TrEMBL record:
PANTHER family: ABC TRANSPORTER SUBSTRATE-BINDING PROTEIN (PTHR30290:SF83), PERIPLASMIC BINDING COMPONENT OF ABC TRANSPORTER (PTHR30290). Coiled coil: none annotated. It is found in: Periplasm. The keyword Signal applies. Residues 81-480 form the Solute-binding protein family domain. This is Oligopeptide ABC transporter, periplasmic oligopep tide-binding protein OppA. Keywords: Plasmid, Signal.
């Protein structure tokens, strides 16, 4: 196992460990073959505007971005955007308010007659971000950043959620800060300097979109089946909730693409295997090549790590807090008990994080955490606002706080979580340990998509108290200058009523001010200090209970090569892996 130096924002236990499968066996990549993966289920948000980790893995093969985060074993290199569709990474002009990008000549859409990707296509990609069907989950990356985007999105919110109305609005309404200076040159004007804007441009949500995509509702089955690719692969077949097959695009121009290599002929993902143990057995048998949306089960990880020479093991620190408990501040249950900070503090003291560590794979790969920013992110300063002995929880302290809040006999809370995988195991451990502090969990497991859409992101259900506690992950959308991605979506409260990520409408003006200061800072040290202060201020309010962080463990088949993990989507790069057999 090779331990990779982590750089200035990656410390100690958070250092990335990448086991590069079989690199010494064959140095020269080969073309051909099929890359096979198995996943627990279909992706909730395939559309680029709403794509998250597993979907971003697919889009690495399907969708090119203006700039991109490279796949590199050195996290410092992986954190620096490089040119993809754009000829160069843009440099801020006019006091940090203007960015210009020229799209590479010869970069084309996979249309019947291949067509040059244009500045107008790039503008269309931005315009779809706030569509009324399924908008981006990170609107603050764009609203309040790109000039005129807030007004544009306010108008879009009033548009009927049908194909014709959306197409007419996107194609007929301008955004002041988005201009096509010529066919391939895009000018972006910002409302204020935004130091991490180049990183935002590297997200798949910022990708150009073909005109044909407006023929389908965002994220609809029709869009998935008829997706127009700009990358080296295209969708050959997509059976919802069953499988997706990608094949190399005949129109892809390798000469106009410095990022993707597209060694394998096909990429196939079969959905419907939520059992990580079964997936592991399939990989070890050579039936498939890797994991799609799960990681190695604890029992298998213990066995595999007993052999330090196993080059098929891939371990890396993604910087995520997974899991984290979200407290529904808006819940009316128990006479609005969760609006009382003492109850929220009781939850933070009651949890046995050591038990969660064991479920997650043990202290060799997981560590307890009590804050929001992790070592992958600039602004991280280690601290624990609610420490307990050996991180095993303090039931007596929790009981004392509950009694002070008017609950001397304990409290019942509705706990909704996505069933399947480790979340079942984490939840069982939480239920047992919280009970010791007088906190009874009413378990409400459900399919991931249902829990997310009908509970967490459903403002009516949230305000009505359909759930009191939820379980999710908190992770940076990229590495390095990415503190905004861990803090802004869930904790900036200025527009919380409209947010799909600030589920409980957490809104602290002092925190908002610290966030705004960090976002507009042109000096990295000033930004880092502001993010650290925001982290502490949020956790003083205790709206969440961070549990553990650490390494993710994947496994690659014996025949796979080029298995460096990309920290943007926490998996191998489907355009760089190759088969040696």
């Amino acid at each position: 196992m090779k331990i990779v130096s982590a750089g200035r924002w990656m410390l100690g236990a958070a250092a990335v460990a990448l086991c590069l499968a079989g690199q010494a066996v064959a140095a020269e990549p080969k073309s051909g073959g099929t890359f096979k993966l198995v996943g627990s289920g279909d992706v909730a948000g395939f559309d680029p505007v709403s794509a998250r980790t597993a979907a971003v893995f697919l889009h690495r093969a399907l969708t090119r971005t203006l700039v991109a985060f490279p796949t590199d074993a050195d996290p410092k290199v992986a954190a620096q955007p490089v040119a993809d569709l754009a000829e160069a990474v843009p440099v801020a002009e006019e006091g940090g308010l203007v960015y210009r990008l020229t799209i590479r000549e010869g970069a084309t859409w996979n249309t019947e007659t291949p067509r040059q990707i244009t500045a107008a296509d790039a503008i269309r990609g931005f315009k779809r971000l706030c569509n009324p069907v399924q908008p981006t989950g990170t609107p603050t990356y764009y609203i309040g950043v790109i000039k005129g985007f807030a007004d544009y999105c306010a108008g879009f919110a009033k548009v009927p959620a049908d194909v014709a109305a959306i197409r007419d609005y996107v194609e007929g309404t301008n955004v002041e800060g988005l201009t096509a200076e010529d066919e391939r040159t895009l000018k972006i004007t910002l409302e204020r300097p935004t130091a991490d804007f180049a990183s935002i441009l590297a997200l798949v949500s910022s990708a150009p979109v073909a005109l044909e995509m407006l023929d389908h509702l965002p994220n609809s089955p029709e869009l998935r089946r008829n997706y127009v690719s700009s990358g080296p692969y295209v969708i050959e077949d997509y059976i919802l909730n069953e499988s997706i097959s990608l094949v190399r695009s005949e129109s892809w121009n390798a000469a106009a693409d410095p990022i993707h290599k597209a060694y394998v002929d096909r990429i196939e993902v079969a959905f419907g295997t939520p059992d990580a143990g079964k997936t592991q057995r399939m990989i070890e048998a050579g039936d498939i090549d890797g994991y799609f949306d799960l990681s190695i089960a604890t029992a298998d990880l213990t066995r595999i790590m007993a052999d330090p020479g196993d080059t098929q093991l891939l371990q890396f620190a993604d910087g995520a807090i997974n899991p984290v408990l979200v407290i529904n501040l808006a819940s009316p249950n128990n006479n609005k008990a969760l609006a009382d900070i003492r109850v929220r503090q009781a939850l933070n003291y009651a949890v046995n994080k050591s038990a969660i560590v064991q479920v997650g794979g043990g202290p060799a790969v997981k560590q307890p955490i009590g804050q929001l920013l992790t070592a992958n992110v600039i602004g991280h300063k280690p601290y624990d606002p609610y420490p307990t002995p050996e991180s095993k929880g303090d039931p007596e302290k929790a009981k004392q706080l509950l009694a002070e809040a008017g609950f001397p006999n304990g409290i019942e809370l509705k706990y909704s979580y996505a069933a399947g995988g480790r979340y079942d195991l984490y939840s069982a451990a939480l239920q047992a340990d919280l009970a010791k502090a007088g906190i009874k969990l009413i378990m409400q497991p459900g399919p991931s998509r249902t829990v997310m859409s009908q509970m967490y992101q459903n403002r009516q259900a949230t305000n009505a108290g359909a759930w009191d506690l939820g379980m999710t992950s908190l992770r940076a959308d990229w590495v390095g200058d990415s503190a905004r991605t861990m803090i802004v979506p869930m904790f900036h409260g200025e527009a919380c009523e409209k947010s799909t990520s600030n589920w409980t409408c957490y809104n602290n003006p002092a925190v908002n001010a610290l966030i705004d200061k960090a976002l507009t800072a042109t000096d990295e040290a000033v930004a880092a200090e502001s993010w650290a202060e925001a982290d502490r201020a949020i956790m003083a309010d205790a709206p969440v209970v961070p549990l553990i962080t650490g390494k993710i463990s994947l496994y690659a088949s014996e025949r796979m090569r080029g298995t460096t993990v990309n920290l943007l989507f926490n998996n191998v790069d489907p355009t760089l892996v190759w088969i040696d057999e």
